[in-house]
Design goal:
131 residues, alpha+beta, Cytidine Deaminase, domain 2, 4 helices, 27% helix, 27% strand, globular, binds tetrahydrodeoxyuridine
């Protein structure tokens, strides 16, 4: 599974996003330690705080399928017909952190189609861990 293929999986998931309130479509695809891929999209709700992010859906799918660690997570966001750079929100950085290690990669393409690869430590320095 190449980075390009994983981002493609995120883009396919993005097409399923339910986001009538923001009209910001997000897809996420996780490659886990078994080589399996899990996808998610954002699912909004009329009661706004009940909406969920694409990354949260992909993490739920990974855990339900028996995966334990995120090797790579690709995120794609944007309007209905065009992708835009989308790094995980603060809450999703913490969610990703829970199932990551120092080698976990978060990959996106920016508005110029350039790749960016981040570690969790870069996106969430000094993260919270239970003592
Ligand atoms: N969203 C995600 O799905 N993931 C992120 O990391 C950023 C934000 C969703 C939440 C909401 O449905 C829409 O994008 C606009 O914030």
């Amino acid at each position: 599974m190449t980075d390009e293929e994983l981002l493609d999986a995120a883009r396919v998931a993005r097409e399923k996003a339910y986001c009538p309130y923001s009209n910001f479509h997000v897809g996420a695809a996780i490659l886990d330690e078994n080589g399996d891929v899990h996808i998610g999209c954002n699912v909004e709700n009329a009661a706004y705080p009940q909406g969920s992010c694409a990354e949260a859906g992909a993490i739920s799918a990974m855990i339900a399928a028996g995966g334990k660690r995120i090797v790579t997570i690709a995120v794609a966001g944007g309007g209905e017909n065009h992708t835009r750079a989308c790094t995980p929100c603060g809450g999703c950085r913490q969610r990703i952190n829970e199932f990551s290690d120092a080698d976990t990669r978060i990959i996106i393409k920016d508005d110029s189609n350039e790749w960016h690869t981040y570690t969790v430590a870069e996106l969430l320095p000094k993260s919270f861990h239970l003592p």
